[in-house]
Amino acid sequence: MSIADIKKNAEAKMAKSVEAFKHELSKIRTGRAHPGLLDQVQVEYYGSMLPISQVANVTLVDARTISVQPWEKPMGQKIEKAIRESDLGLNPSSMGDIIRVPMPALTEERRKELTKVARNAGEDAKVAVRNLRRDANEQAKKLLKDKLISEDDERRSLDEVQKLTDRTIVEIDKLVHGKEAEILAV
């Protein structure tokens, strides 16, 4: 493995961490409804836990209402219960075969809680990126120890990985601030 491979590998893994963080942010509720909001809610289906999107059609009725239409009639009650018991603070109502999930307006207190959730997710993403930096640096030090590269090459590699880490952390910070602004917008 060369220094270029180490850097390319670290860059790819950091990009994946940022993508995973973006996905995590998309789950945090703002004032608007979107079908992806229910992706993390699991429902029991013949003995196994599945996301709601695998047992029902999830669509938007309007900007503040999600519609869930189970594929099997008996699943309606289980889906409604799973949504109610999730930590999303939603109160679904059943209308025949269709479950309507209205999005309540966010209170100031709930908005502040959600910004804390976004910040914590950002910190977790930063920790993941720093762990990737550590792994890349250890690989470079191992190459130096095995006398496959010079000390100058190792120093250059450490600097490049640090710059990559700094850029990735700045990107994560921008995403967190953007999400906070979105949550706090009334």
From TrEMBL:
A single Gene Ontology CC term: cytosol
Primary location recorded for the protein, binned into one broad class: cytoplasm
Keywords: Cytoplasm, Protein biosynthesis
Entries under InterPro entries matching the protein: Ribosome_recyc_fac, Ribosome_recyc_fac_dom, RRF_sf
Family matches, as CDD domains: RRF
Biological processes annotated in GO: cytoplasmic translational termination
Cytoplasm among keywords: yes
MF (Gene Ontology): ribosomal large subunit binding
Keyword Iron-sulfur: no
Coiled-coil region: none
Ribosome recycling factor domain ranges (all copies): 21-184
Record Gene3D superfamilies: 3.30.1360.40, Ribosome-recycling factor
Compartments where located: Cytoplasm
Family: Belongs to the RRF family.
Record HAMAP family: RRF
Function, in words: Responsible for the release of ribosomes from messenger RNA at the termination of protein biosynthesis. May increase the efficiency of translation by recycling ribosomes from one round of translation to another.
Name listed for the protein in its UniProt record: Ribosome-recycling factor
Organism: Sphaerotilus hippei
Phylogenetic classification of the source organism: Bacteria, Pseudomonadati, Pseudomonadota, Betaproteobacteria, Burkholderiales
